[in-house]
Amino acid sequence: MERKKYLTAFLLLFSFQTFLLAQSIQYSAFPQHLQLYPRDASDSATVPISGLVTTPGQDSILLTVYQNNLYWQRQAHKLIYSKGQAFFDFETRIPAETIEFKFEIALASKGITRTHTTADSIVCGDIYLVSGQSNAIPQGNAPYGYRNEYCRSFGKITIHASYDPADTLWGLATGMGWSPGNFGVGTWALDLMRIIKDDKGIPVAILNGAVNGSNIEFNQPNPLDSLDLSTTYGRLLYRAQKSNIAQHAKAFIWIQGENGKSILNYAANFDTLYRAWHINFPNLQTIYVFQIGMNQCGIKNKHILREIQRKFGDQYTDVEVLPCNGLPGFQGCHWWQPGYFKLAGWLYGILVQDFYGDSLDIDAFPPRIKKAVYTSLTRDEIALTFEDQQHIIWDSIHVLFRDTFFLRNYIYFDDSLTTVQKGYTSNDTLFLSLSSTSQAKHLTYLPDYSYKNLSYPYLGPFIKSLHGITALTFHDFPIDLPPEHESKGSNK
Is residue 458 domain-shared with residue 437, that is, in the same domain? Predict the structure, then answer.
């Protein structure tokens, strides 16, 4: 009986000491399980741990750090109390590699050390933000099941629902899209993370705020409260701030345009978003905008919207425009998984040059029209020059089922009598041989969304780069008169 009393007393004392230990530290900074810290210019990040020890009688505080569960380093600070509290502050640099770190805080008193708090699976890597509509957060024909400990996200995608401020956990990114859930980023964003991790050995976090069927007006910030959680903009910003990455996101990826209220207001609405992004995410270096494809869903006159999007690359020095046209598995509005995988690959081909030090590969960029000019006074040939001295491919024929489609039939002119007989290329220039002398002043590359006399979405052929990246479409692009020296020569 006496033995039981001693055992009970010991257990009560141990429980009380454990309770006091649990209450003995107030953290002002401490890593969260699975947190990703942003990679800086030295390919590493600082993990701060600081706070107050509030229980008296502790001699020192210790921080032990493990790499992949193996001991790595230890720091210890002697505690100096003032008014019953002792301040402590640790900083640890961790590299941007496929290594997970564990941080363990312990208190030492009278030769006895007790572990207080542990945070596991901490990494250093890169951060990207995504928003738009359904093709920005797709599932394709099936959810993408890939998961990896070095591909992270934060919080939830709620689609049209408001956000619970308590949803502030880090986790492994999933391919979930089009429906609410934890850590969802969609198919292509998850595959982009996989490519970066596999190719560069750097962990990645993506926060995706896209909403199915949303127009650009829906994506605007509340001008009175950018953190309004009833808006998709506010929900993404809240997640970015709570995860401490809003100041460190490298790039923003925007895929939107199939749905909308008015094409006429699209450029102004994008400008509002552009300015808000740079205020709320001040270290963005590049904004990647995808020019929409030949979508049957949503608004009409998509060829005009694509022209507006194409011009963003000229209007903003930090905007890079990429195509959706030419991705495999197109279903009229969305793509099967192979299309989204290809999208991730095209984006990575540019992103790897922007952020990972790869040498310039100009043919990884989509061909972008620079100039159109008649080559002679007979005006029966037009030279289309593309930017950056790319190698242009004229992909003249596309076979679909039993039909054969010719690219020359999908170059349009404001002179209805002008038609293209053939096309041929020389380095960065595409030459269009015309059927006769032309009075056309403008030309358009590709239709609104479908083949002539068919409702089926246009799937090719396309103008491409040497690497198969499809050219950005253009609408009512001006055709210059022949060079001045030729005009003078003809008057002699």
Answer: yes
- Among residues 92, 122, 152, the one where a domain terminates is 122
Residue tagged 């210890």 (tokens): 76
Partners of residue 206 on adjacent β-strands: 128
Domain extent, residue 76, equals 22-122
User: What does the pLDDT look like over 91-112, one tens digit per residue?
Assistant: 999 999 999 999 999 999 999 9
- Cα separation values, 359 from 355, 363, 388, Å: 11, 12, 15
Q: Which of helix, strand or coil describes residue 363?
A: helix
Beta-carbon neighbour count of residue 321 at 10 Å?
22
Q: What is the pLDDT of residues 272-315, one digit of tens each?
A: 999 999 999 999 999 999 999 998 887 788 999 999 999 999 99
Strands in 23-142 per DSSP E:
25-29, 36-38, 44-53, 60-67, 70-78, 81-82, 85-95, 101-109, 112-132
Give me the amino acid identity at 3. Answer: R
CA–CA distance, 350 with 353 (Å, rounded to integer) = 5
Q: Which residue has the higher pLDDT, 87 or 1?
A: 87
Q: Which of 59, 88, 122 is the last residue of a domain?
A: 122
pLDDT in the model for residue 489: 36
User: How far apart, in whole angstroms, are the C-alpha atoms of residue 308 and residue 321?
Assistant: 11
Measuring CA to CA, how many Å separate 458 from each of 346, 369, 400? Answer: 20, 20, 10
Give the other-Cβ count within 10 Å of 160's Cβ.
12
Mean pLDDT for 464-469 is 97
Pick left, alpha or beta for residue 186 (phi over 0 → left; psi -120 to 50 → alpha; otherwise beta): left
Q: Using an 8 Å Cβ cutoff, are 46 and 92 in contact?
A: yes
Instruction: Check pLDDT > 80 for residue 488.
Output: no
